[in-house]
Amino acid sequence: MNIKNKIGKYQLGRTLGEGNFAKVKFAVNVETGQSYAVKILDKEKVLQYKIVNHIKREICTLKLIKHPNVVRLYEVLASKKKIYIVLEFVTGGELFDKIACDGKLEENVARKYFQQLIDAVEYCHSRGVYHRDLKPENVLLDAYGNVKVSDFGLSALPQQCRADGLLHTTCGSPNYVAPEVIADRGYDGATADLWSCGVILFVLLTGWLPFDDRNLAVLYQKIFKSDFKCPNWLSPGARNLIKRILDPNPKTRITIPEILENEWFKLGYSPAKLVEEDTSLDDVNAAFTNAEEHLLTEETGPVLMNAFQLIAMSVSLDLSGFFEEEDAAERKTRFMSMYPAKDIIEKIESTAKAMEFEVQKKNGKLRLVQTNPKSSRNGHLSIATEVFEVTPCLHVVELRKSAGDMALYRELCRKLSSNLSSDNLETSNLGFKDDDSVWRADEGVACTNIGHVVVPSVC
After folding, report:
1. How many CB atoms lie within 10 A of CB 192?
2. CATH 3.40.50.2300: does it fit domain 3-89?
3. Domain NAF, which positions (predicted)?
4. What are the C-alpha distances in Å from 448 to residues 175, 237, 388, 434, 439?
5. Domain 95-266, what fold?
6. CA triplet 250, 169, 115: central angle to 5 degrees?
7. Residue in 55, 123, 49, 129 with CA at minimum distance from that of residue 85
8. Phi and psi of 458, rounded to 5°?
9. Nearest-CA neighbor of 392 among 304, 302, 282?
10. pLDDT tens per residue, range 408-435
């Protein structure tokens, strides 16, 4: 069963995502009711892997950035064992999801997103901050459809430059990385970020990547040569801008000031309105010390989900996506079951072990790790699993792929769905209409008619 933590004034809820060194959880300020995303770091792991400076850099980077198109960092807290980074909670999902669902976008829509992306990137660069891992997955959308650039975990401040004034750390996602980054001979962070923006623009307008190949060496060759084709149905202005951005020579590549004067770019362009604020980094330094006056106490307790929290689990408050077997990004799967939580966990364990996964248990959660991958190309498959109680006889099962082979992940999800099918809700093509839900707010429960299935919120 899922365990809920409280740190300071923040009540921590479901897990939104996780990586090698951090986990991101949904949180609510109990004093104001405001929603946040909290990135949680394990101090011991940070010290073990000697990434203290890296983490401090990420935090300082975000605290320096105050832009409407960049995810905001509000404060940093710490307990004896963990560091908590309180971030803006963005509700509209990833730009990646929108492309995956809708395919290519209309030019006017793609242009609006690109304008906001360039606004955010230009602001960051003007403050000596480079992202270095720009891709649609790191571009979020708020409730109004505005861009919010996230994940500055690979960003670099000017002091990382060597005597030649160039950055020398190779990072980023292969399909979006600039050729000079791959060459590993030093590169300018601003021009490298701009290349990634060009790849994103191409994806927005076409629905596919300009550079793609299963063979990494072949992919890099295509990037080095800027070997791609713009479809003829793109407007001349869009094609010209993409070609100027995806110039393999960083010295002749178009710059952001030049993009701001580009005729295609300027159509309907409205620069972001900025509000400057003083920034203190005192809480950042305090978070990495063990001084008792700076440390908070963690409180834990069981969590139950009422109908309102159930709706909140859907990123954009659209429950049709919540009940799909796989979300658009294909990294997270949710379904509902009327089995008892104990039976659900047992079925997950038995299914995973039959597929040669190691099952790890901690704090009422399961992690499934592939023990003998047939290929190391995608790495060991790792899946985090949680079971949330809506009522004693209704549970939400959530699986999140952290890393590894997508095909095997889908196979596991299919088998789990089959094993729990007798009590599962219908999960395909489901959605609510305005008259489908009858709320009883005084009791905090609801009865919902989904298609032909009536789901009571109480047993």
Report:
1. 23
2. no
3. 300-324
4. 43, 49, 18, 11, 8
5. Transferase(Phosphotransferase); domain 1 (1.10.510)
6. 50
7. 55
8. -130, 150
9. 304
10. 888 888 888 778 754 444 433 333 333 3
Which residues are marked as active site?
Answer: 133
**pLDDT tens-place string over residues 191-202:** 999 999 999 999
Q: What CA–CA distances, in Å, run from 361 to 152, 279, 381, 419?
A: 30, 41, 16, 21
39 is in an annotated binding site: yes
Which residue type is seen at 294?
H
Q: pLDDT digit string (tens) for 302-319?
A: 444 544 455 444 443 333
Where does the chain hold its CATH 1.10.510.10 domain(s)?
Answer: 95-266
The alpha carbon of residue 286 and the mean position of all alpha carbons in its chain are separated, in whole angstroms, by: 27
Pairing mode, if any, of strands 35-42 and 82-88?
antiparallel
Name the 3-class secondary structure at 417: helix
Cα–Cα distance between 14 and 403 in angstroms, integer? Answer: 19
- Joined tokens for residue 133: 């891992």
Q: Look up tokens 């949904």; give the residue.
A: 26
Encoded amino acid at 354, one letter: A
**DSSP secondary structure code for residue 295 in this structure:** P
Tokens matching residue 250: 């960083």
169 neighbors 156 (Cβ within 8 angstroms)? yes
Read off the tokens for 195: 């290349």
CA atoms within 13 A on the CB side of 206: 21
Q: Strand pairing of 147-149 and 73-78?
A: unpaired
